[in-house]
């Protein structure tokens, strides 16, 4: 049987999602067995292919090179999978979009001489090309990624159950931080992360994005949180992983 | 004639190599980094300080602990927060987990194939299955420490300004201690393998700099030691650094008193080898003068230094966790009150000293930030080394030159993602 070809490509980001793929350890070898691997910068000298069955993309298309390569990759790939909060929501770098009061103020702070720095609005992958599947989270949960890539390898449609973070938080018996008065986004955020932040007593920042179809709950929950911590801080929380526009869009 | 290698593979992030060749001599060796500017230093401004270490952690997926902890330390310094010895022990364990994971990956997946010329990793795994198994065991252990102590194998969740958000059961810590035994054995095996490798002959007298502390192979804190001049407070050394955007890529390179210098595993080993743990110390016989003040000026030995550190770090983690259990205090969060201030923090990331600086106002809003990463510090030094090495070494052909360039770049283990942030 001819192996499916796989690309694991990286746009501008921390590259942590690729590291999580490397962290699969022995299971990474299984991926090597099933797929013919092109362009996985970590494991091989770069070998670009004319065609991919599956292209996995992390990061935000920030530079002209990023955008150009992303479009090229889309054209030559059957399935494109966006992984991680950057590709899905914009990631931490999207804070720029929300917080810039004067044009180029952020870039001028870091680069006083401001020489040839590309400084576009930060966008997730789906705003540039069509995305077929998304593996959310910052960073991705490697088990969830492995499930999705295995499903695709065997021609199944990968699905992430439409449940909020609270579901796994409660079934794991973690302490509810909302009840303690903390501004947790758990009730309106897509679960599947095993409520990993709640396990460590940190409230949910919504890095997996809004729970689809939960419009009315989102409106209500955000209103309650606003009463709790005020508009400014609530926005900062939602902006941390670039999810604010995504929450507000679904709310409408 | 122009020489160009676009997309250097097997490094963290994207970069290309450029140089001019005049009458057989390499001139103007330059690395151009092709990663977008995420502007981390300015996007955290005018926001609550609590989220600052969460965001700065995302500068890099390989050294997220170093960014997170350095950020926390700098903020604590600004707010005047004093942590207790138990918090420091667990933080040190986390900081050490990073070179364990990062060095292991770099040694095997990124650097080793250079010694056997252009073999893919799949071939490497087939050729050295035992070594591969050891590497995976060591990496998994580094990640496990981060998962158990920090809440996840990347981008820490439990760490916080003032300490840790939760306290672990002692049994879990004891289990980690038990697991160090086979990992240490594996690390010793890996170090033996790297001791037997044939490193290119090369030397250049450069300044090595990194954290030093009395009777300690410093990673977590200390003064900045240097092979030029005496050790000085972090703040003094930080002020001697000048950051400049010298190329048209989005990196700001740092020079020390106007010169290029070298942080990282080789610098730490040169500065602190007296304080290595016993098993790691045995590997110093590799050097001509194992008790000398400076062990080596050969940049390629940065790879070997990482292998020695792998052994040291596993020993150190075991020691620290045992100390943690012996101390009966389990108070892992200190109380503090908000006040305005400025703070600087420095930690040894796998690739060298990492600096974070912040100003925070009395409402807890971050008002100023500066971050200097190890790769931003050594890029100039790497280019200087590339020029000297390529001019001295016998280059057979184009392919051989490309191999030599790649090998030198990878010996530095650069992290372009960090360099850009």
Tell me the series of helices and strands of chain B, N- to C-terminal: EEEHHHHHHEEHEEHEEEHHHEEEHHH
| N-to-C series of helices and strands of chain A | EHHEEHEHHHEHHHHHH
Q: What share of the residues of chain B lie within helices?
A: 40-55%
Can you summarize the main beta sheet of chain B? 3 strands, antiparallel
Helix count of chain A, per DSSP?
12
- Give me the count of strands of chain A: 5
Tally of alpha and pi helices of chain B? 14
Described by the principal axes of the CA atoms, the overall outline of chain A is: globular
In whole angstroms, the N-to-C terminal distance of chain A is 48 Å
Q: Largest sheet of chain B, order of strands side by side?
A: 1-2-3
Protein structure class of chain A = alpha/beta
Blueprint (SSEs and pairs):
The complex is a heterodimer of chains A (252) and B (421).
Chain A (H helix, E strand, L loop, with lengths): L3 E7 L5 H7 L3 H9 E6 L11 E7 L5 H12 L1 E7 H6 L5 H5 L5 H6 L22 E3 L6 H12 L11 H7 L24 H4 L15 H15 L1 H9 L4 H8 L1
Helix pairs in contact in A: 10-11, 10-12
Chain B lengths: L1 E4 L9 E8 L2 E9 L6 H4 L8 H6 L6 H16 L5 H31 L5 H7 L1 H22 L8 E2 L2 E2 L5 H26 L11 E6 L10 E4 L7 H7 E4 L8 E4 L4 E2 L2 H8 L5 H4 L19 H26 L14 E9 L2 E9 L5 E7 L1 H19 L5 H15 L3 H5 L1
Helix pairs in contact in B: 3-4, 4-6, 4-11, 4-13, 5-6, 6-7, 7-11, 9-11, 12-13
């Amino acid at each position: 049987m001819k192996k499916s070809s796989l690309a694991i490509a990286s746009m501008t980001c921390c590259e942590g999602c690729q590291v999580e793929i490397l962290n699969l350890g022995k299971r990474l070898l299984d991926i090597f067995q099933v797929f013919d691997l092109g362009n996985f910068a970590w494991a091989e000298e770069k070998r670009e292919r004319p065609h991919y069955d599956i292209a996995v993309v992390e990061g935000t298309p920030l530079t002209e090179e990023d955008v150009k390569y992303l479009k090229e990759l889309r054209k030559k790939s059957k399935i494109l999978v966006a992984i991680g909060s950057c590709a899905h929501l914009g990631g931490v770098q999207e804070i720029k979009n929300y917080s810039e009061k004067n044009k180029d103020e952020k870039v001028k702070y870091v680069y006083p001489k401001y020489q040839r720095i590309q400084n576009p609005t930060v966008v997730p992958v789906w705003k540039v090309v069509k995305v077929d599947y998304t593996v959310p989270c910052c960073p991705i949960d490697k088990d969830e990624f492995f499930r999705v890539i295995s499903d695709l390898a065997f021609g199944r449609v990968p699905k992430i159950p439409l449940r909020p973070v609270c579901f796994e938080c409660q079934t794991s018996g973690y302490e509810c931080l909302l009840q303690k008065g903390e501004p947790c986004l758990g009730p309106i955020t897509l679960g599947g992360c095993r409520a990993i932040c709640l396990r460590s007593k940190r409230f949910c920042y919504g890095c997996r994005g809004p729970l689809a179809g939960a419009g009315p709950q989102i409106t209500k929950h955000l209103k309650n949180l606003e009463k709790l911590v005020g508009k400014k801080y609530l926005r900062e929380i939602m902006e941390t992983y670039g999810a604010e526009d995504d929450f507000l869009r679904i709310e409408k | 004639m122009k020489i160009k290698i676009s997309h250097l593979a097997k490094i963290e992030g994207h970069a290309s190599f450029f140089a001019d060749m005049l009458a057989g001599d390499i001139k103007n060796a330059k690395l151009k980094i092709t990663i977008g500017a995420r502007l981390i230093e300015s996007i955290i401004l005018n926001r609550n300080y609590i989220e600052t270490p969460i965001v700065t952690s995302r500068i890099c997926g390989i050294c997220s602990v170093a960014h997170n902890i350095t950020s926390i330390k700098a903020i604590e310094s600004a707010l005047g927060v004093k942590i207790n010895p138990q918090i420091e022990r667990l933080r040190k364990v986390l900081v050490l987990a990073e070179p364990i994971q990062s060095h292991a990956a770099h040694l095997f997946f990124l650097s080793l194939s250079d010694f056997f010329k252009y073999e893919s990793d799949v071939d490497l795994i087939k050729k050295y299955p035992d070594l591969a198994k050891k590497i995976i065991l060591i990496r998994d252990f580094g990640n496990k420490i981060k998962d158990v102590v920090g809440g996840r194998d990347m981008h820490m969740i439990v760490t916080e300004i003032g300490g840790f958000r939760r306290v672990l059961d002692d049994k879990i810590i004891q289990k980690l201690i038990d697991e160090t035994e086979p990992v240490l054995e594996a690390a010793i095996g890996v170090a033996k393998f790297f001791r037997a490798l044939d490193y290119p002959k090369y030397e250049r007298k450069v300044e090595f700099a990194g954290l030093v502390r009395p009777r300690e192979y410093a990673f977590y804190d200390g003064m900045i030691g240097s092979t030029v001049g005496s050790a000085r407070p972090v703040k003094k050394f930080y002020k001697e650094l000048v950051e400049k955007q010298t190329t048209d890529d989005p990196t700001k390179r740092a020079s020390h008193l106007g010169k290029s210098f070298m942080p990282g595993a080789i610098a730490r080993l040169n500065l602190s080898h007296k304080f290595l743990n016993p098993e790691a110390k045995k590997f110093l016989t590799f050097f001509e003068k194992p008790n000398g003040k400076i062990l080596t000026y050969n940049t390629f030995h940065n790879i070997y230094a990482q292998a020695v550190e792998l052994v040291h770090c596993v020993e150190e983690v075991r020691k620290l966790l045992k100390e943690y259990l012996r101390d009966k205090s389990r108070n892992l969060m200190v109380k503090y009150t908000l006040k305005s201030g400025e703070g600087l923090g420095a930690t040894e990331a796998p690739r060298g000293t990492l600096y974070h600086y912040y100003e925070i106002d009395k409402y807890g809003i971050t008002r100023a930030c500066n971050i200097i990463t190890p790769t931003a510090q050594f890029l100039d030094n790497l280019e200087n080394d590339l020029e000297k090495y390529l001019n001295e070494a016998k280059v057979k052909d184009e392919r051989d030159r490309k191999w030599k360039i790649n090998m030198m770049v990878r010996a530095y283990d650069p992290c372009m993602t960090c360099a850009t942030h």
